[in-house]
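Please think about what follows:
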Amino acid sequence: MTKNSHPRNDRMLTVETLKSVIGSGEIDTVVLAFTDMQGRLQGKFLHAAFFLESTLEHGTEGCNYLLAVDVEMNTVDGYDSTSWEKGYGDMLFVMDFDTIRRLPHRAGTVMIQCDLSLIDGSPVPMSPRTMLRKQVEKAASHGWKALSGTELEFMIYENTFEDAWNKRYFELTPANQYNVDYSILGSSRVEPLLRTIRNTMYEAGMTVESAKGECNFGQHEIAFKYDEVITTADNHAVYKTAAKDIAHLQGKSMTFMAKPNARDGSSCHVHMSLRGLDGELVFWDEEKGERTALYDHFIAGVLHTMREFTLFYAPNINSYKRFVKGSFAPTAVAWGLDNRTCSVRLVGHGQSARMENRLPGGDVNPYLALTAMLAGGLYGIEHELELEPVTTGSGYTSGAPTVPTTMHEARDLFANSAIAKEVFGADVVKHYVNYADVEIAAFDSAITDWELRRGFERL
């Protein structure tokens, strides 16, 4: 690990500045965090003096079961990388000193995001950040860098997280009780929370664009500026965790579930484009005023791999409940020009030319979604895949192939994908197939409220 840092902007800290603010007593806590398979930040809160004295130079470790558990943090069988038989050893937290940021909603606290390595120093291949970095390096070998943005929707409730738990998440009070899509009044009603999140994230080093209301009750979105893919994924993970924490501090709760109720689900539209390493356009021909062949191959690759890579776009049982015709969530593996009924929507021209992947929901792991999208696009370029005809009109009735409708189907497509094994590695594919198997088995054995309501008396 290197002590040389190149902060992404002047609101983030260098190592030298971090030493200074710890020395002055301004900072007393350093959070070291990595993103797990489920897209959650996991790690440690270190006393700042100990961090300077020991961790900064020598690093720290965490149990390697952290990439082999379910949502409940249960140790589960089936992972080759770690197990009871292998003794559940450690992995190293490799600090990325470009990511030192203040967490202004938590006094005296900074966060550093980490990669993961084995004890011998080699990267952990199934770590989501490692997987994305591998695709970034592949793009760079061709002379390109990938830029992206994630538009993350969420629901806000007036209940605390504890109250929501005690109610078993039923009959919660949404922050808005009618459709507030683009409503200034609707957003104003929850502006104390939205404003705090925006300003906190700005101070934490993100470039905030806007907030707006959405269709479901209490549903909103805060958008951030397009950036390089690893920066976007890092910011997404911090924002998602911090927003919940800020809601908690204000006595509210929020969820990023893809489909928490029968109304519109929460999406995470992912925008992406390639540029040259020096920022030159590669997706747009300025002289002709049109897309380049390289852009078309990239789109074709994303579409060609979409069904097989859906597990990375829709990683939970609940993710698949979003895919409903006429809901603005896509069902067709198709592309269109500014067409929100397709899974891939092309927008912009010139510098702003980019593709929008509308498949992921708010529950997505940003590193896995960006990994899948970039890997699929690069595959399309390398194999010069031909772009299928544009979809005009409604994608829902286009007759195009459809996205998987269950995690069972997505799991089988991913497990049997030769392309997935080629671009991610067979060990990574096996690891995430087991992740799906664990979730499917847990859901298939659960007794749901739907079953009780239908069957308790009447069957």
Notes: The domain at 135-445 is CATH 3.30.590.10 (Creatine Kinase; Chain A, domain 2).
